[in-house]
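Quick one: structure tokens for this chain, please?
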Amino acid sequence: MEPESGVTSGISARSASTLLKAYDPRETVEQLSGNLPHWRQKGVTYFVTFRTADSLPHEKLAQWVSERTDWLRKNPEPHSDSQLHNYYERFPVRLQKWLDEGHGECVPRQSRLRAIVEDVLKYFDQKRYFLGEFVVMPNHVHAIVTPMRMHSLSAIVGSWKGFTARKINSELGQSGSFWQKESFDHIVRSPASLHKFEEYITANPGRK
């Protein structure tokens, strides 16, 4: 029997702080479409979260999407630093809190399935990206990652989710969506911001 609180966190052999490529306000930022925020800048470090398909109750997610749509309507771009702070507190931060409540079947709680996710995260470390600190929670995953040249964050996270979904579904003898289609990613803007995300990941197991 697997422990009910089973989670795993880890970090690459080197300090994630040495890998930081922070946001550069002089460079172009691309915004991708979707229900979740996706800001991109070449060569930077990201804090990434992806979750299981059943990790949030439908009614909570519908409320979140409705409120976010209303906020964006009332706060057209370009957004000030104050608006961005308000946005992240009201939407991404609140989403993280809901994930920590542990909704859904929480399949990655099982050690053999959690190991699949860990191994995939580390597989292309230092080949396609630099992997910093990460944690595999019962219904979601957090990771700090810096894509290498020619490898996009979308492709990296898509590969993580696609391969782990196939392996886990095979292990469980099931099919269908395992991870939620969209992921949440946040550009790391400074060493202080990186430290904040590292602390969040380290403390995350204690929240569930």
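The helical segments are 58-74, 81-90, 92-99, 111-123, 153-172, 191-203.
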